[in-house]
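Supplementary Text 2. Reproducibility record for the structural model of the 109-residue chain.

All settings were left at their defaults, and a single model was retained for analysis rather than an ensemble. We include the record here because the model underlies the residue-level annotations in Supplementary Table 4.
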Amino acid sequence: MTTDSTGESNGTDGEAERATDSDAADDPGRAVTDDRAGKIVEYLELGAVAVLALLSIIAVFGAYTSAMGAIDTWVAREYESIFRAVFNLVVLGLVAIGLSVLVRRRFES
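Retained model, structure tokens:
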């Protein structure tokens, strides 16, 4: 329910809620169908996330091995271990940032 500048409620939100509740009460099968459709959409989204996560893991592995090959090719032998260590630390930092963002979004209230 919303209030105007005088503090009085205008009832517009309550009317919309009552209309939605009465529609669901008129057709109980519709509420079940909507719930099932919502679950199907949720499972499809989770499946899409799983497929995309798998593809991203494959792509990251390929990029990582290519970067290691580039370090072998372009960096002098005595500096390869330093470049690999720095590269691995950068990758680890990016992973930590990504995970922290995801965890904050997931468990944020």
